[in-house]
Amino acid sequence: MASSLFTLQVGQGPTRLLIDTGEGKPSWLTSLQKVLSSEKASIDRVILTHWHHDHIGGIPDLLTLYPTLKIYKHKPSENQIDVKHGEIFKIDDTTLRAFYCPGHTNDHMALILEEENAMFTGDNVLGQGTAVFEDLSAYMDSLQKMQHEFSGQAYPGHGPVIENGKAKIQEYIRHRQEREGQIVDVLGREVEAGKKGWKSMDLVRVIYKGYPENLHAPAERGVLQVLEKLKKEGRVGVHEDERAWFLQSKPAL
Question: Which of 68, 194, 209, 241 has its CA at 20 to 30 Å from residue 128's CA atom?
Fold first, then answer.
């Protein structure tokens, strides 16, 4: 297996499979061609982990090299082949198993490398920092499932290889749970007179106190994701007229 600018090759024989295609920069194609040429190999299949441009942008260039290339993706676009959860891909003596794990995007697919008990995590788990997500409820559910599917290394869509992938996923889960706990704690405090609840930016100013203000807007997006998750669970409510959030009262026993 070899990596090249957000791309991972699988296989050691003359025909190989590619996971993701980078964002379409000429340097990516040059790097890929150099590796394949030196090893007298070619690509016949690509699996896309999700729809973001930095993972699918290299497809047009790749098709100029390999016009018969098969492109696989969950929830496929035109001229792509659907990938089902649990689908098996064989490359020489290597086995990849597709694992549907929405959260970062609703089409997100990881791949389990069976022989190594490892996982290609796409953008659900990164080599550095934490991931962003479209749907926190789905993301947390996916992380809980992902941690039980392997016990070896994790090969992320960005950043270095993670030696203990399972431990990293558990770290991600704890981080999200801690942030959720902070938000619930603040919602439990008294609001200022005349206010119906907490606005999302007010929560940010408390939880991210001491952080530069230019980070407040991206932090608010994460806080809103937590609030929407808590709302789905019936733990918080919102006054829609003011977008003011509050803890739901527990029913009397």
Answer: 209
Please give the Cα distance from 72 to 79 (Å, whole number).
9
Single out the residue of 167, 206, 163, 152 nearest to residue 183, CA to CA.
206
Q: Where are the beta strands (DSSP E) in the chain?
A: 2-3, 8-10, 15-19, 42-48, 70-73, 81-82, 88-91, 94-100, 109-113, 118-122, 154-156, 236-239, 244-247
Q: Is the pTM of this model over 0.85?
A: yes
- Tens of pLDDT, residue by residue over 133-146, are 999 999 999 999 99
Q: Which residues 6+ apart lie within 8 Å of 144 measured at CB?
A: 173
In whole angstroms, what is the distance from residue 238 CA to residue 17 CA? 48
| Each residue's pLDDT tens digit, 215-243 | 999 999 999 999 999 999 999 999 988 89
Q: How far apart are CA 106 and CA 109, in angstroms?
A: 9
Which parts of the chain register pLDDT below 70?
A: 1-7, 193-194, 250-253
The residues with which 43 forms a beta bridge, in sequence order, are: 16
Q: Is residue 203 within 8 Å of 176, Cβ to Cβ?
A: no
What single letter denotes the amino acid at residue 106?
N
Closest CA to 8 of 172, 168, 160, 167: 160
DSSP code string of 215-252 = GHHHHHHHHHHHHHHHHHTTSEEEETTTTEEEEPPPPP
The total of other beta-carbon atoms located within 10 Å of residue 228's CB is 15
Total residue length of the chain = 253
| Calpha distance 24→221 (Å, rounded) | 28
CA 95/CA 113 separation, integer angstroms: 6
